Amino acid sequence: MKLKTKLSLGLSFLFTVILVFGVLGIFYINRLTNDAAKVLKNNHESLVFCNNMLKALENIPHSEKAKNDFNENLKKQEANITEPGELEATKEVRTNFAELLAAPNDSSNYPQIRMGLQIINDLNQDAILKKNNLVQKTAEDAKLWLAIIFTILLLITLTFIINFPAILSNPITKLTEGIVEIAGKNYNKRIYLKQKDEFGELANAFNSMAEKLDEYESSNLAQLRFEKSRIETIINQMKDGIIGFDGKRKILFLNAVAEKLLGVKEAEVMGKYSADIAVHNDLMRTLLQDEAKKELKIYADSKESYFNKDVLNVMNNSEVVGQVIVLKNITPFHELNEAKTNFIATVSHELKTPISSIKMSAQLLNDNRVGNLNEDQHELIKSISDDSERLLKITSELLNMSQVETGNIQLKLQPVQPSAIIQQAIEAVQFKAQQKQVILKVNADSNLPTVNADQEKTAWVLINFLTNAIKYSPESGTVEINALRKNNLVEFTVKDFGKGIEDKYLPKIFDRYFKVPGSSKTGTGLGLAISKEFIEAQGGSIGVQSEIGTGSSFSFLLNVAG
To answer: pTM score > 0.85 for this model?
Structure first.
């Protein structure tokens, strides 16, 4: 039966209950009304007629009108015969009234007429009493039947009210429970309804949907398992350490390399918070630090290895839902770089001595005490000296860079007067400045405090700044050397008025082997990089400001001693 039909039947039943109860009520009300009307019409009117005739009877001897009234009421009574014996009594009254009219002076007819009227009156009063009892009985019967029918209908209605909503609500409840289970990915849920209505059709459709979802989930799960297994195999075969976290930093997976590096098994830490693991694991604690060095030296497998740390965020609609830390093994590159650095240091060291010897020999040859040289020979000696000077500078920079790359910068930190550093740097570049007619202008406070620095390496940095400033200054230009105090720091600045550096090159100016396009090709691109390492090794900072057409300003800050 369709749900629509059930609702129609339910509403029809309620309508039928109301209709039946109403019809019964109207039936009994009409019956009582008819009985009451009969009493009023039949018996009550006869009583009125008899009463009128008795009144008129008293006045018949004296009034013609009384005779007419009596006759009119008698006619009405003759037309309203309703009770047994009433007809005979009425005829008797008619006969006696006729005799009275024929013999007005005969008084014997009066008692006969009164007796006849009394009989009619008694008959109608008895009838009224009987009919009243009948009406009362009818009313009692009506009340009884209405009460019985009302009780029956009430019980039926209550049963309907209790049971009919369940016909609608129970299937809805089962369907709701099924939908909740499906939403919870329980695709084995089924709904069984014996009804053949819309709910039954909906349950069948629900079961069909759940079956399809179960099939899809099974096939999809198998595919996901295959993909998971394949990805796990790939990750475990990688030589890099890989650690996966969810959005709450719970560990999701480790590959074999990460297990060895951390010294733990994947099964031991799976699903645990990384912060809890970091309490007892130094490497994990280091990896969780956002500002941790990207290059890490890790001791594993009885040897030291070097790794680069890369953090990859797993995104879902611009929301970070997890992280993957990749520890890339750079040990071979580190070893090659170390070998390169050692090679450069060795070669530079070995070259420095013969180059110095060549330079000294060239100076001796240029001395007149050794012998006079012609002009061409002087030019050759000058060329040899310049090349030797350039080679010495290159070898010095390479030696310094080897110290930087190996982390073996030897510092002799001690209180140093800023003026001493400036004076040492000016003496070293004075000759070059004179050759180009560049004026070196010093602006330094006389009462500057001492700085905590390595004088030789700091002077080397300042010399490098001055050398570049002189190189890029115009003929007869000016280079300013400034020194001033800033709280607990002293700032050294070298400013030239050359062509300047474009903004796009400024972030790279202190990178190794970087040279501004269009600059001199004779440099190595290491001077500023070494300067940066020397200053930062002393706890200071270095910077540059430049504008095309107005020149450049290189500066560094050192801590005040004490």
So the answer is: no
